[in-house]
């Protein structure tokens, strides 16, 4: 089986209700951390991992996302005329080659598994990555790149895994581990959103996957699972025990849940502090408000 991963699916058809009213007209993936939309972080990570084909599963109202990846000749011309070469470079780095992006519609929000399945004809018979742009990962080596390197050794199916507190397990898919090899674990079971007392481990699945095409066949025959949605976790779990197998990969990096307001705010602060031009002002401000809070106690 081929182990080079060159295609990635970005499921972005969700309604983003946790960010209403903003998401009434702005796709969640276009919301910005500092000055870059969430989707740009995901695309950069995919490019670093060697992805060449970018498949977006979209829905009604996501037009801004398509526009974002279009070239902007007028704007570029204006920046060139004004000699703003740095801004021009920033803008050009967001351009995508013709034919590199495909958009598929998910006509009904039937769940993440269904969204991935919608892209089946573009994947055909190759391993592929799935990136959820809500999960933004700050890492020295981008998370998907770490996974692609590990996958070159193992093949099979791989999910990014992160340790979570027991009371948080019910928000994730959780791994049942048969063999712990450090950064990699062999998976013997997966449970979607278990009750705290029923979680088989503290290893939760987050939004990066490398999957074999047989997962798409499983999705084809899938019934709705937890929450009435077609769950990707269930289709991946059906690969356990097959010759492909399922691995969890403990990535190195910090993950922010930008699908939640609290995670989004934390990511904004973290990425703001990484910027040299913002660091001093922002950290002074953070010190001030923390000290003010302490003084008020
Ligand atoms: P979420 O569970 O975060 O749902 O989806 P959501 O609709 O985006 O946000 P909330 O919960 O209403 O605030 C996780 C990922 O799966 C995609 C979403 O776009 C997001 O990237 N998804 C989910 C789909 O593409 N289709 C679906 O039917 C469901």
Detailed description of the structure:
Helix content is 35%, strand content 24%. It is built from eleven helices and 13 strands. α10 packs across α11. The model has no long low-confidence stretch (mean pLDDT 91). It binds uridine 5'-triphosphate (UTP). The site of uridine 5'-triphosphate has 19 residues, from α5.
Question: Short description, anyone?
Answer:
By secondary structure, the protein is an alpha/beta fold. Helix content is 35%, strand content 24%. Residues 11-18, 57, 106, 109-112, 114-115, 132, 134, 259 line the site of uridine 5'-triphosphate.
SSE series: EEEHEHHHEHHEEHEEEEHHEEHH
What Rg is obtained from the alpha carbons, in whole angstroms? 20 Å
In CATH, the topology of the largest domain is named Spore Coat Polysaccharide Biosynthesis Protein SpsA, Chain A
Q: How many DSSP E strands?
A: 13
Strand order of the largest sheet: 8-11-9-10-12
Layout of helices and strands:
Layout: E1 7-11, E2 32-33, E3 36-37, H1 38-48, E4 53-58, H2 63-68, H3 73-81, H4 85-92, E5 101-105, H5 112-117, H6 120-123, E6 128-131, E7 135-138, H7 143-154, E8 157-163, E9 173-180, E10 184-192, E11 203-211, H8 214-220, H9 232-237, E12 246-250, E13 254-257, H10 261-274, H11 276-296
Parallel strand pairs: 1-4, 1-6, 4-5, 8-12
Antiparallel strand pairs: 2-3, 6-11, 7-13, 8-11, 9-10, 9-11, 10-12
Helix pairs in contact: 10-11
The structure holds uridine 5'-triphosphate.
Uridine 5'-triphosphate binds at residues 11-18, 57, 106, 109-112, 114-115, 132, 134, 259.
């Amino acid at each position: 089986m081929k182990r080079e991963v060159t295609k990635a699916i970005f499921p972005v058809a969700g309604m983003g209700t946790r960010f209403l009213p903003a998401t009434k007209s702005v796709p969640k993936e276009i919301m910005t951390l500092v000055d870059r939309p969430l989707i740009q972080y995901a695309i950069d990570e995919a490019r670093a991992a060697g992805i060449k084909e970018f498949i977006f599963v979209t829905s009604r109202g996501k037009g801004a996302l398509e526009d974002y990846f279009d070239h902007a000749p007028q704007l570029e011309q204006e920046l060139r005329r004004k000699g703003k070469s740095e801004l021009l470079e920033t803008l050009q780095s967001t351009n995508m080659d013709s034919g590199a992006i495909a958009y598929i519609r998910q006509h009904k929000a039937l769940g993440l598994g269904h969204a991935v399945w919608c892209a089946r004809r573009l994947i055909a018979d190759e391993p592929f990555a799935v990136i959820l742009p809500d999960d933004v990962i700050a890492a020295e080596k981008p998370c998907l790149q770490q996974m692609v390197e590990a996958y070159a050794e193992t093949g099979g199916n791989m999910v990014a895994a992160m340790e979570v507190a027991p009371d948080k397990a019910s928000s994730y898919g959780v791994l049942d581990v048969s063999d712990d090899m450090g950064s990699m674990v062999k998976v013997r079971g997966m449970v979607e959103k278990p009750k705290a007392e029923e979680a088989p481990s503290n290893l939760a699945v987050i939004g990066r996957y490398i999957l074999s095409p047989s997962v798409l066949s499983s999705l084809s025959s899938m019934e709705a699972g937890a929450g009435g949605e077609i769950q990707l976790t269930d289709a991946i779990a059906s690969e356990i025990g097959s010759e492909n197998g399922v691995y969890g990969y403990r990535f190195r990096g910090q993950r922010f849940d930008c699908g939640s307001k609290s995670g989004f705010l934390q990511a904004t602060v973290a990425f703001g502090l990484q910027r040299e031009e913002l660091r001093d002002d922002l950290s002074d401000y953070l010190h001030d408000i923390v000290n003010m809070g302490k003084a008020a106690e």
